[in-house]
Amino acid sequence: MTITDNRTMGSETETIVTAGAPKRIRERLKARPGLFIVLTIISVVLLLPVLLLIITSLKSADQLSSGDFVWLPIPAAWSNFVSAFTEEPFAIYAVNSFFLATISGVLSTFFSALVGYGFARLRGPGKKFMFGVLISMMLVPGIVTLIPTYLMFSQIGLVGTYWPWVLWGISGSPYMIFLYRQFFAGLPRELEEAATLDGCSRFGTFMRIFLPVSKPIIVTVFVLSFTGVWGDFITPNLLLNYDNTTLAVALASGYVNDQGFPLNNLIAAAAILYVVPMVVVFLFAQRSYVAGFATSGIK
Fold this sequence. Notes:
Blueprint (H helix, E strand, L loop, with lengths): L1 H30 L1 H25 L3 H5 L13 H8 L3 H32 L5 H11 L8 H10 L7 H9 L2 H12 L4 H8 L4 H9 L4 H16 L3 H6 L7 H7 L10 H32 L4
């Protein structure tokens, strides 16, 4: 009974967060028309690069090489999207990116949850110190450890393989662990007591009780992990070969003419195709994604 009540409580919280927030935002915008104008201007400025990208992707080679900027490419060269998909092995690189992002996302989501559960619900000497170390790791930029990481993987023969992403996924992410820890710390102690009375072990309690009620955080962590690997350029460019690299690296180094100059219209079309999967993922996961950030700070 306790478990059912808490699951109901979690779903109600998610509904309030996802449904109530837009209504409050609309009320505030109606009360402050000046704020609405400022936000509209900011939105237009932020969307301008996207608009320029779409315009460039629809230009023909002649329109692109002319000195005058063309705002409305007429006729629109829709064939650029076909050329962007066929002139380079777009599908192969997309599969590589999807495989790496999925493997890293699944592993990081599970193992970050496991570590976050330990920080939130288990007791032991040095736990506060270890959590402080975890928080301090969030302050270290990833670019600082890139060269030492490359040297380490090079010495053990993992450069050119996908094993670094597997190891990173198993190690978890400090930020993801922090999100899980904050969410699990806010769950009532009665959940564990009921599971213990039913004969569940610690790991059984984690798998059967805490994971099922943490759907918003699971979706949030998976989306962050997936998009982080999908959009990463530096790490695969450093650790992978060109034949097994990701789509981000292929877009930056491909699509050139016979003289070696970049074909900007094909690059823009490929960039749009590159972004579409992330937009689809976010549209399907946005309710749980927003709720995950809103509830992760509840304690």
